[in-house]
Amino acid sequence: MWDYVLERRELIAFQAFQHVSLVVQCVLLGTVIALALAVLVYRSPAATALANGVSAVGLTIPAFALLGILLAPFGFGITPAVIAVTFYAALPVLRNAVVGLAGVDRSLVESARGIGMSRSAVLFRVELPLAWPVVLAGIRISTQMVMGIAAIAAYVLGPGLGGLIFSGLSRLGGANALNSTLVGTIAIVLLALVLDLLLVLAGRLTTPRGIRV
Amino acid sequence: MSETTTPETPASDAAVPQRRVSGVAIRLDGVTKHYPGQDRPAVDDVDLEIPAGETVMFVGPSGCGKTTLLKMLNRLIEPSGGRIHLDGEDVTDQDPDKLRRRIGYVIQAGGLFPHMTVATNIGLVPRMLGWDKPRTATRVDELLDLVGLDPAVYRDRYPRELSGGQQQRVGVARALAADPPVLLMDEPFGAVDPVTRLRLQDELLRIQEELGKTIVFVTHDFDEAVKLGDRIVVFDIGARVVQYDTPDAILASPAEEYVADFVGAGATLKQLTLTRVGDVELEQVTTAAVGTDAAAAVAAARAAGQDFVVVLDERGRPISWPTLAELGRATTVPATVDPRLPVVGVRSTLNDALDTMLAASQGGVVVTGRREALAGVLKVEAVMAAIRRSRAEVAG
Prior knowledge:
The complex is a heterodimer.
Chain A (H helix, E strand, L loop, with lengths): L1 H6 L1 H33 L3 H16 L2 H12 L3 H25 L3 H9 L4 H34 L9 H9 L6 H30 L7
Helix pairs in contact in A: 2-3, 2-5, 2-7, 2-9, 3-5, 4-5, 5-7, 6-7, 7-9, 8-9
Chain B lengths: L10 H4 L11 E8 L9 E8 L4 E5 L6 H8 L7 E6 L2 E2 L5 H5 L2 E5 L10 H11 L4 H14 L4 H4 L9 H13 L5 E5 L7 H18 L2 E5 L3 H7 L2 E6 L3 E6 L1 H6 L4 H7 L6 H5 L12 E3 L4 H10 L6 E3 L5 E3 L3 H5 L14 E3 L4 H11 L3 E5 L5 E6 H16 L1
Parallel strand pairs in B: 3-8, 3-9, 6-7, 7-8, 11-12, 14-15
Antiparallel strand pairs in B: 1-2, 1-4, 4-5, 9-10, 12-13, 15-16
């Protein structure tokens, strides 16, 4: 297998880069969308319940099925891959953001209002910073999950290491087929670990010292 | 004790009008709060005049609407009817965010933001009002000093690194940051232990003596109301004002049986809550500054016929009271802070002083005045003498 890696190191490195790039960009986009939705719904119990329902049901949709559905309007390529990966990335963040915002001590919000902070100042200076550790936990779950889902996106000819896995699986029994699948899988696991470490570091840097655990 | 007796007006009350006043008057006209779906209004048509620079205590059973009424003053709860005037100006329709920056607000446990340092917390309102950073920083230090916390030590701490009492002090400092004329306090000392509560009450009295704000203070503790208030409003359900008067007057002649019940039957020793430490003659003691010659301090105390010395830190605050034997063993006066040193403020009640003595198993307490500087020492004998005197007065 080592020879296999050495022979194709440039291709593997390129696909790994594409994979990580897809995941990181989709997680960022998904986080922005999820935070915006969470801010819209967290004050209303009905909307909160709806959001939680959507994020729970959304996660049960098989990635293959979603990609298949997206093929019809968007065809093969990057677009359906990005849409599907962003969709799955947003769900855990949405759930955690709603929980995090709802978990902010009401007396602190009242205290913030009481000293004359505007609604948006309360959100940006008090509620979001206090909910941040919970949101960040959601981002970590998201990232781990969509590293795998991004591999399935190769089914619609999306970019990334999924190509190695699929081409190996389709030629199973042939030369290097197992190597191709294994290398793709192992690379995804390793990259997921690296990304998680980076997120832990980002968490340390972005969580205010006063609320660090 | 006969209930018709009018208690002697304590000397400290006579001093009230001379106090510097930076507060403004508040007037409520028919203020009402009706929640949808409830038959009775939570606050029913309340008229109230709160004079500038006075501390007015709202007391009453839970659910009587006193907190709702307080929160209508800074419009955290919008009144459904009536007008609110601040310094003669109708603020009922003013932008609530702007209004609140002129009204300090303190809640239980301080309501500090855990992700911000002490300095950031205190500086929030000045920054919102557009003060620049240096001016805000100076003000933060000034306020920490005012509430008895060393700015160099506490400025950059986070709330969770403070004790409950310290958090509450920072909460008061934050409320005072932009020097608002009015301070609203919603059961601020409800979550701290009794000893810390006494200290915080003393602090508040001391700060109020310096600043003369208009303070509206909600509590369910009648003793706290008597101790802190220039006036007390006793509420019943629907925020009906049952009695609005000075503590002495309410204790002496409760308006209704309801008030009498609320005040409590144990009024025999109520004099203890009405008499302030500052009204009793304090014993003047020998003091010694940290780092000075111990032998000289011992000699001075001997000459004065005293068996202990009060040690003062560089700001004149008492930190310990070693006996002459203890002090004699050292060459210079030590800087050790005695954490169990019993201290009360001059505006504390005799009741607090007795409590503090008992808690520390000591026969006396150290009394502090402005900025926690030493005012003297109060011995248990002096408290007993004061009780005997007041009982004799009542009987006679």
